[in-house]
Amino acid sequence: MKQTNLLFLLVIISLFGSIATASNAPSNLDNKNTSVLTGTEGIAAEQQTMINGTVTDANTGELIVGVNIVVEGTMIGTTSDINGKYSLNVAQKNATLIFSFVGYITDKIKIGNQTVINLKLKPEVLNIEGVVVVGYGTLKKKDITGSITTVSASEMNKGVYSSPAAMLQGKVPGLNITASGDPTATPSITLRGPSTLRTGAAMEPFYVIDGVPGASIESVANEDIVTMDVLRDASSTAIYGSRAANGVIMITTKRSKDGQSYVNFSSYVAVENVSHRIDMLSATELRDYLKKVNKVPFDDNGGNTNWQDEVTRTGISQSHNLSFGGGTDKTTYGVSIKYLENQGVIKTSSLDRWIGRMNVEQKAFNDKLTVGFNLTNATTNKQFVRAEVYANMHKYLPTVSVFKPDGTYFENTQNSNYYNPVAMLNNDLNFLKTINQLANITLKINIMPWLTYNASASLQTTENQNNQYSKAASTLHLSANGYAIRSEYTNKSTLAENYFTFDKTYGMHSVKVLAGYSWQEDKINDGFQNANSNFISDDLLFNNLSLGSSPDKVTTADRFGTATIQTLRIISFYSRLNYQLNNKYLLQATIRRDGSSAFGANHQWGTFPSASVGWKIINEPFMSNLKSVSDLKLRVGYGISGNSLGFDPMISRLKYGVTGTTYINGVQLQAVGVTQNENPDLKWESTAMANVGLDFGFLDNRITGTIEAYSKQTSDLIWNYPVSTTKYLYSSLIANVGKISNKGIELQINATPVKTHDFQWTTSFNISHNVNKVVSLSNDLFPTFTEIRTAGIGGKGQSGNPAQILKEGEPIGTFFVRQYAGRNVQGISLFYKANGDTSKVVTVEDFKQSGNAQPKFMFGWNNTFTYKNFDFSFFLRGVSGNKILNATLASLNDVNNASNNNIPKFSLGEPATDINSFYNSTRYIENGSYIRMDNATLGYNFKIRSAKIKSARLYITSNNLFVITKYRGIDPEINLGGIEPGIDNNNFYPKTRTFMLGINLNL
Amino acid sequence: MITNISVIKKLAGAVILVAALFTNCTKLDIKAESELTPDNFPTKASDFEAAKGIIYTILPANYAIDYWRLESLSTDEALIPARDGNWDDGGQYRELHKHTWTPDNAIVNTVWTYSFNGIIACNRVMSMFDAVPEGTLKNQQFAELRMMRAFFYFILLDNYGNVPLLKKFGDDTPTSPRAEVFAFIESEVKEIAPFLPRAKNSVTYGRPTVWMAHALLAKLYLNALVYKGAGMYTEAVAQCDSVIKSGLFSLDADYKSMFLPTNGPAVKEFIFAIVYDAFKITGNSFTRYDLTPELKTKYGLGTKSPSNSMKTLPEYFDKFNLAGDVRTSTWIVGKQFEFDGKTPITVKTTYKGLNQDYAGPLSGGRDTIWQLELTKAIWLRYDPSKMDTGNDFLSQYMGARSIKFYPDPNWDPNTRSDNNDFPVYRYADILMMKAEAILRGAGATNGDTPVTLVNQIRTRAKAPVISANPTLDELLDERVREFAWEAWRRNDLIRFGKYSNLWLFKDAVSDKNHELFPVPGNQLKLNPKLVQNPGY
Which of A110, A190, A346, B1 has the most other CB atoms within 10 Å of its CB? Predict the structure, then answer.
């Protein structure tokens, strides 16, 4: 153990060494280049041949300007001029010319006796689509046997996205992404249905960025992403073992190929507005309404405030990205700098981010050795808005002004959860600064032409600095006279990967074998928190905690935080075999053995196997008569992957914690008690998935598509089960018990219906259908446990009532509410009791399950039209068959309480006598189906015949132009992640409509 | 070229070696760095003091709110009515008041869980102490833990009757009949009493002493007829006498001072009290539940309002009918004035806002100034089955309010927790128990008679003294005046055979079986060995 620690230390030290030397790297490069250049000039003097020619696009025949033409192994080169022409003096006759240009496949031509070389360069797009990143390597798309969707940069959504995940929304069948208008929020992602009862990271896919598993997705600039490969079935994901059950998203970023130089600049400015609001009564309307029922507003100072207007704004966002790269065929480098500022439409909510990335790669020993170094730094600043603002911007009485005549905020502290939302925005501040650094060294050795060794070591550190301050006037911290919290926590992830790849073809047999080992340790929450209250002045905010004088008035949790250091170690062995017979029959088998320190002493190791087969029907002789069919492949796979994301590594152990303060011997003392039972049998959730897919292409692939069906069963679900305190030290036990199944079918079709010289229409459509079911929540240990009532969303008279139920045989997100039975003659809402009677009063025992939040279908439809230099695309997406509990409307529709809380215009159609109108019931379970015009973009590509500018594009994009829905809330795109999906409960950050103007330049 | 290949070979060899070494490293043992686990706790003597502390964090957690509600809301002492749907909270208070609770009542479950949490915690800490060598120190430590366990068992005995007896950690015993639970508590307390501290001072405040043992036994014996069908009044008197003869306790001259936010070790008559702190040891929120928002300024509560939900029934308040009795002033009722007694406390409202049933001419404006008036009477609006008083000013001001646990200006305005400690056993109860045991047939001792004993209480309260033995009913009423809001009403009513009686909004005589609460439904689900009480 010590020995390996030492070795690991060496790897880390060398990594740091690389970081240190990296700063000198560019100048070293220059020196080297210069010396090579002078060397070749010496040779060039002996014998010269003039080569010239024209470079054109192989598809369109258009001239290409700015193509790099280099004599292989030298620095001698030129670029094609604005007429696509070039000329070059070459020393040796047996030299080879390398033609390279961004977006085209690099071509090599032996000069021989030629003096005129006209070349047609093939666009690279085809090649990008042809290669799929599969984990520890790539495969050709036609050789894939699993279910993988590749989304390339041109297909990704355009918009102001603070997370790259949003660019995939609607593009991948089975990938359900719900995004919020909140710049500080991350979209929730579920692949092929929810398959865990845990929330947060446990439900999210596993990200692998440029081969680094678990790298932070927020440290990647959207513009740098070349492709995202979504591994959807277990035969594809099982290579990532215990962390892959929710799918794997592989992100590949831009880098220079064979020294091609590039400079890209892209920039946009966007304005965002609230796309939809809830119409609330104005002050006059509310006064009139109340007057009719002989009431007055509880507070009325003659004001007329539209609180939604007061808290919202037009958000202005901007993004600028500069990337450049180049090098030689031995040395390549790439640099990218990005700045994003994303202003939220709720005042004060915002995000800004700087990302700097660089990579250097050097080949040596006749290109047999490749070493690389990547460094990323992403610094993000977020300002959060408290959730109470969302509820209060609707319900706060419009009859009061924002400010009192003395300039202080109008407040009423008598009503609970009632806060002046403008005051809250300005008085209760919460900032988070995240600094993410990722350094990665890679090593690749081509030991034999058929044997490669890869090694990499990476170190990722994430520093989170949270600063909160509630000013003296804050109603959240009444009488605290200023309340500040500061914290600083660092997460560190260390990773070493080693693998060998064997790749050889023997006649009809093609064999690829991968074998590897990885070691990863994640240590999180290394840091501290401090807090104080009773400050001399609000002016310095949280910046000087010593100016406060009442740390004792701060809760212990606020003062010292609750975060604990958590160290997770994952050790893995993995292997994959790809075998192909006669270019017709494909076999892939993978196995991964993972050990994780998070699990019980009896179950720290698990094995995750998978196997899949493919049949390239198109290559069978009998297909040769079917000319219209250009591709046909059948794939069948089965595999098991695990879910161990989102765990406290101490989850299986007996834990003690401070359970309160006690009075002992005349003084207060911290008491320590058990806070977690031990479970040595705890293991990962495991997901077994079978997948059948058919890839097809017609008419020379003018129409291509894929249809897939899968069945996924997750067992050993982890849940915190209540246990008898007569048997256990603590009242709950984290144990593996339940099962969830997801079954579905997915279809993707891409077509080019029209293609002429000037005009082209390409379209792609995907639709997916998933059926989710909780199969079981019980086992021998918990035999009677068959349902979990959940989603206690509270609200007046409803605290403790669930809104959803997790029940065997039903999907996650099944609503469980009062059954609305119309109104009685007095206009009071009635509900069905369990025995069928109607009553004004019902209990939880009378609740029934009523619909669920899981969509039956999700679809996305993209269309791109190009006409000469113009292109136009629009993207529609939507879901159907899901239900939403509109608890926001229910709680606002409290007509009898209109003197305390404003009511929506909707309520004007309600009887004022309805004292039960606000109860969550079937009445507020609404159809959540929608179709959204997610994106429309009009672009113009300048054809600049200049060697200085390769391409320039100007575009305007609008997001969320319209939504077609019957849903009565702000927007039907309600969070579908977690185990309480589809609930709109006064916590909804408004959706936005965006207009952006952008430019892309390639130099 | 050759050198290159050999270098590559060497390099590859080195890399393979590194990989092989990594391969050997399959160690997954991670030591806890910032958490307490069996690796690092408890390892030394001082850890045990912290380990024992859990019992005193469990103790206050549910006593003055949940346990209090079970004992008081299920009687005529206190009421939380619904207010236009608010405060119905799934019917948990209404069920207690009307004796219509089911095994699923939230409070019934909370108190069960609370008691067993305490018991298991005692057993668990004792299991940690197992390694400590036998001797006086261990006996003392164990005596403290066993006394606290007996205290939690007393709650179970009194409220649920038949419960499993868990004598050491890990026990998974079936339900024992109530009489066995009684015998267990009795034998435990008797056995450990000699090892408990005898001093009454700030060191022993809030922790078990030998005097707490006597007080608990006195309660046990006084209720023995209920618990096991045989009265033990002579034994009750003997236990009371042990406390009286100690000379350590006496009645505080100022009755009301005992319940102030500043109360503590200085109170002369506390035998066992539960310590609360507004910020650090939360769980006492009488100010929050008893007071009204409009009175917060008068009582110096800052900006955050009380929630104005808990009141007493008129018939209970009517028992405070003795001239000059200082205990009557622990209530507020009637028109409200500032402390000067003459400046009225008012609010601006409308007729409709004041009284939602107002049917006079519509005015629409702010047309009345109303002096706050807490009415003794409470009446229902809407559907009587909802026990809902409506949500206008009149309903919010229905019912007399207790300010016995005096409103705390230093409360935590966020959690609305108070600093007032809560007495469980106090000297006045010893005197009253002795008087009652004698009335119920025990021999008088040491010259004390029911008259002299009750008169000690009356004199301190500045109420008229009595000259003849009180009847049992009169004694019960005296207990109302002395122990209102101290969570003894249910215990008293059952002992006096009046728990199933009718009171305001309770319109049916309840089943005698309801003198015990049911085993909570989800506890039955969790532990199949539990046996449900009769009648549920």
Answer: A190
Low-confidence residues in chain A, pLDDT < 70: 1-47, 93, 124-129, 725-726, 945-947
Q: How far apart are the CA of B491 and the nearest CA of chain A, in angstroms?
A: 26
Are the Cβ atoms of B303 and A475 closer than 8 angstroms? yes
What's the pLDDT at A21? 37
A669 and chain B in contact, CB less than 8 A: yes
pLDDT at A36: 35
CB of B46 less than 8 A from some CB of A: no
User: Which of A607, A734, A739 lies closest to A682, judged by CA?
Assistant: A734
- In sequence order, the β-bridge partners of residue B246 are none
Q: What is the pLDDT of residue B10?
A: 57
Question: What local confidence, expressed as pLDDT, does residue A434 receive?
Answer: 96
* Pair of tokens at residue A145: 């046997």
Give residue A714's identity as a one-letter amino acid code: T
CB spacing of A571 vs B28 below 8 angstroms: yes
Chain B residue whose CA is closest to A568: B30
Cβ distance A801 to B54 less than 8 Å, yes or no, reads no
**Stretch (H or E) spanning A737:** strand A732-755
Nearest by CB: B90 against A573, A722, A801: A801
Cβ contact (<8 Å) for B526 and A724? Answer: yes
CA–CA distance, A765 with A154 (Å, rounded to integer): 16
Q: Kindly determine whether residue A565 and residue B34, on different chains, have CB atoms separated by under 8 Å.
A: yes
Regarding beta strands A49-57 and A119-121, do their DSSP bridges make them parallel or antiparallel, or are they unpaired? parallel
Q: Do A294 and B203 touch (CB under 8 A)?
A: no
Please judge whether B57 and A447 are an interchain contact, meaning their C-beta atoms are less than 8 angstroms apart.
Answer: no
Best mutation target, B16, B120, B309, to test chain A (most A CBs within 10 A): B120
Residue B34 CA, distance from chain mean position? 35
Peptide bond into B42 cis (omega under 30): yes
Q: Which residues of A touch B84 (CB under 8 A)?
A: 896-897, 915
Given a cut of 80, is residue B366 above it in pLDDT? no
**Which residue out of B8, B43, B101 would a mutagenesis test of the A interface target, given it has the greatest number of A Cβ atoms within 10 Å?**
B8
Buried-state track A272-294, b at ≥16 Cβ within 10 A, e below 16: bebbbebebbbbebbbebbeebb
Which of B10, B11, B28, B205 would you mutate first to test chain A, the one with the most A CBs within 10 A? Answer: B28
Complex prediction ipTM: 0.72
Assess contact for A592 and A639: CB atoms under 8 A: no
Residue A424: alpha-carbon gap to chain centroid: 30
- Three-state DSSP at A596 gives strand
Give residue A837's identity as a one-letter amino acid code: D
Give me the DSSP letters along B470-496.
Answer: PPHHHHHHHHHHHHTTSS-HHHHHHHT
Give the whole-angstrom CA distance, residue A266 versus residue A223: 8
Please provide residue A61's backbone torsions phi and psi, each rounded to the nearest 5 degrees: 75, 5
Query: Residue B41 and residue B62: Cα distance in Å, rounded?
Result: 27
CA closest to B2 among chain A residues? A365
Write out chain A residues lying below 8 Å of B522, CB-based: 722
* Entry pTM: 0.77
pLDDT of residue A25: 37
**B:101-140 residues touching chain A, CB 8 A cutoff:** 104, 106, 113, 116-117, 120-121, 124
Q: Are A408 and A473 in contact (CB under 8 A)?
A: yes
| The pLDDT of residue A58 | 81
B450-460 helix and B472-483 helix, angle to the nearest 10 degrees: 30
In tens, the pLDDT along B426-459 reads 999 999 999 999 999 999 999 999 999 999 999 9
CB B383 within 8 A of CB B390: no
What is the average per-residue pLDDT within B66-89? 93
Radius of gyration of chain B (CA): 28
Cα distance between residue A165 and residue A162, in whole Å: 9
